[in-house]
Design a protein that fits this description.
about 190 residues, alpha/beta, 3-stranded mixed beta sheet, 7 helices, globular
Length: about 190
Amino acid sequence: MGAVLAVRANRAEVLLEKARTEYRLLPAGRMLNRCEAGSLMPFQWTINPYRGCELGCCYCYARYTHEYLDLDGRAFERIIFVKQFRKDLFERELRSVKPGEWIAIGTATDPYQPVERRYGVTRALLEVLARKAGLRVAITTKSDLAARDAALLGRLAERNDLRVNFTVTTLDAGLARRLEPGAPRPD
């Protein structure tokens, strides 16, 4: 019985997709990105710890960003670039954030996509942010992996304004799997 289950698991569609995902380290001179002046966005700064996203949402507007890396949009969920986090640089960058300005984490890629389990870039960012006071931080994710950082998020919220937004496209698990093949099930 165990051998049969192992064979089935090896052939599972999600696992096969994961086997085709490639991770590349990306030297990052910055983690914080300033929104353009006059932007209609409700935040002034963005952070995307990864380029590309394993969730594979068919409606994702950020796929085109891989074209800047000479890759096509289909590579967006197959080739994930992991931004190399440097605490010293990030702390220096945070000095540019003025009181009352919002930092939005996860505006183009999910900060808690599966690769976060391996590399922990989002967690490293949050550890630095939790030592600060007076920040306004919003995180947007589809992932239940955010629960891993519940205590850390609690510390961050003690001295900062924190919002954690979970997006659930549909409660229909079958439809969710077709729309967002790599995302956690809605249930």
